[in-house]
Amino acid sequence: MTSTTAGPDAPEKSAPARTVADALTGTGTLIRFGLRRDRVRLSLWLLALTLGTLVTAAQYKALYSTPAERAAAVSSMDSPAALAMTGPRHYLSDYTVGAILGHQLLGFMAVLVGLMSVLIVTRHTRDEEETGRAELVRSTVVGRHAQLASALAIAAVANLVLALLLALGLTAVGIDRSGPGGALLYGLAHAAIGLAFAGVAAVTAQITAHTRGATGMALAVIGVAYVLRVAGDVGNGVLSWLSPIGWTQRSYVFVDNRWWPPALCLLLAALTAAYGFVLSTRRDVGAGLRSERIGRRTASDALVRPLGLALRLHRATLLGFGAGLCLMGVMYGSILGEAADMVKDIDQVQEALAEIGGSTVAESFASMVMVIVAVVAAVYVVMATLRPRAEESAGRAEPLLATGLSRDRWLGAHVAVALAGGTVLMVLAGLGFGLAGAGSAGDGDLVLELVGAAAAYAPALWVTVGVAVLLFGWAPRAGAAAWIVPVYAFLVGYLGPILQLPDWTTNLSPFGHVPRLPAAGMNWTSLLVLTAVAAGLILLGLAGFRRRDLDTK
Predict the structure, then answer these.
(1) Which pLDDT does position 243 carry in this prediction?
(2) Gap between the Cα atoms of 217 and 214, Å rounded
(3) Once rounded to an integer, what is the mean pLDDT over residues 360-369?
(4) CA angle 292–295–300, rounded 5-degree value
(5) 31 neighbors 153 (Cβ within 8 angstroms)
């Protein structure tokens, strides 16, 4: 009888080689599951981006309905400050309504679409690992690349659906007058830039072990891309070719309809996605390529207190929004001196500015723009106020509250950071707006006036915090509904005067009760009422949080 046992010198049997199909096993299932999880989230994103574009397109058709109005728009946009806010000068050569849409909106929309794509990818990759769900999923019959592939596929589906909705919507509105394919190119340009930043997020998700870090790095790339686009459009255009946003705008949609610049975005998407797959093989599940920084042996005095810990958790987001809002204020302030020339032949905008009041067009224009700055600050305060929900869902709140720390102190620390942070952001934005505006308009008094105008929106931000706290305290699963406040404020605060919406729509927003400084006079009564409403909402939210159970793990 012959033994079948291999001797010590027998060669070992090699493991079967892994194929690409093995690495992607389960991708289809994860895609279906991810779309099922994000059906509401993605629907809201697509609805907001599509409706925002279509409303703006309809607005442009009304504002620039005659050749004379479009010629006036060309003269007002042909300046370095205006080009920095919009896009390359070549659009001005044939300034149809479609060209105006591509020139003035495409760069701004590229940032929003990039944000959507980044959040999709980091949510379905790094967030899954940080919460421990990825390890559980990968213990089943799922390939090592399935999770990243499914996240990119979900981002691709969202961007392609957005492209289709935009193409159909703009065709229905009647914007496509530059020949066949203009509306389709406009939609596909959005998809291309979204996929490019999805690929960037695929790389940043491999670098750090935390969702916030991966998202922050990807958003920083978006910010750098936008700054390069601005610098290139103001200068000789060279720097714009280093930016995916600049590539998208150089499709010159509704003017030349060039298809190859967005293809550069697709190439970047493919390269970054492939690099993301390569990097994912060089780290463990739940870890990042960047090694964790060794902290102090003992916590500082600030970190052992609720407020110090909350401020540490919010620090990166607060600094990012601070830099962004200050830059935003400087950009708007740089065109303040040209505001009168920019709107002199646009009847509807002039009517909206006249309704706001003010002794000069610059004051009225500043009052209108300040609403946009306040809405961006409101985005921060909603994010900051809902951060306790993320801490609770991740299981980090329960160990803290199991000690002598009360629920009021824990939640109150996060609320205090949101209240103070939103106020500081508005002051910084007002300072940048005032300094740049004073230089542009030649009026030094604008510095203090615009800082005060920005600070006046603080009570409205506090009401926004109160709404988010109320939802977190009583119905934490419905906390995302707090995003309705900044979205609605933008629609009625900025577009309302132009579209001549009725007054009652503005009164439904807390931002509608803020005095429109510096054009209007101060109204302390409304600010005190907003402050009282904010305090009441926060107290109700704290009471609800004391009564309900924690979402434990």
Answers:
(1) 92
(2) 5
(3) 75
(4) 150
(5) yes
